Amino acid sequence: MAIRVLLVDDQPLLRTGFRMILEAEQDIAVVGEAGDGLQALDQVRALQPDVVLMDIRMPRMDGVEATRRITGPAKDGPAKVLVLTTFDLDEYVVEALRAGASGFLLKDAPAGELVQAIRVVAAGEAMLAPSITRRLLDKYAGKLPSGEDPVPDTLHQLTEREVEVLKLVARGLSNAEIAADLFVSETTVKTHVGHVLTKLGLRDRVQAAVYAYESGLVRPGNP
C-alpha cells in the first residue's frame, strides 16, 4: 500500500513542489494539503495520513503545537510527523522533537532525501542525522533540565550495556558507529536500542537522545 502523506505549509508554491516530487514515486500518495496547523488537525482526522510533512512557522497554529496534538495521547490516528525547517539549527526544531515529531528535514534538501525521509518515518524510524541530534541538543541545552535532579527510576530498568548504548545514541552515533565502539554487531546494537526504547516507553532514538539529556545521564558538550 502507498504511504499516505499530508503536506502542511503556509506557502502554496512549496506545497506544489513537494507534491510533484512525492507523486512521482509509486509507493507514495499525497492525500491532502493544509496551510496552517489548525487545518492540519482537521485534515489528519479526515484523511488519516501515515506521514505529515509539517512546516514549523505558520499562522494561527504553528507546527510545534500541531505536532503535539497529532502525536499526543488524544491523537486521532497513526500519523507520524516529519518537520520541515529552513535552518538546520532552528530553535523550534528541539521543541517539535519533544512534542512528538519523528525527525526533521531542511526545506532545501534534495528530492531524493525528501522521498527517503518519508519512507523512513513511515516505517517507524527517526529521520534525524546523528550529527544534527548532537548539535541541536548542545545548542539548545538551556531549554532542557539542568540534570541536577536525581536520576529517574526508569533509568534503573536498563542493564549496564543498555545504558552504554543510550549514552552513545545521545552522542549522535549511528548503529554502525555504536557497534564499532562497543565491538559488537549492528544487529546486537539494534536489539539493545529496541530494549531501551521499550523499557523507557520511548518512540524512537530521537526521544531516547532527549531523554538522556533530560535525565542527566548525558551533559551537553560532554560525552
TrEMBL record:
Pfam families in alphabetical order: GerE, Response_reg
PROSITE patterns the record matches: HTH_LUXR_1 (PS00622), HTH_LUXR_2 (PS50043), RESPONSE_REGULATORY (PS50110)
Keyword set includes Transferase: no
Superkingdom to which the source organism belongs: Bacteria
Keyword Transcription attached: yes
Signal peptide, first to last residue: none
UniProt domain Response regulatory: residue ranges: 4-122
Protein name stated in the entry: Response regulator transcription factor
Lineage: Bacteria, Bacillati, Actinomycetota, Actinomycetes, Kitasatosporales
Organism annotation: Streptomyces albiaxialis
Alphabetical list of SUPFAM superfamilies matching this protein: C-terminal effector domain of the bipartite response regulators, CheY-like
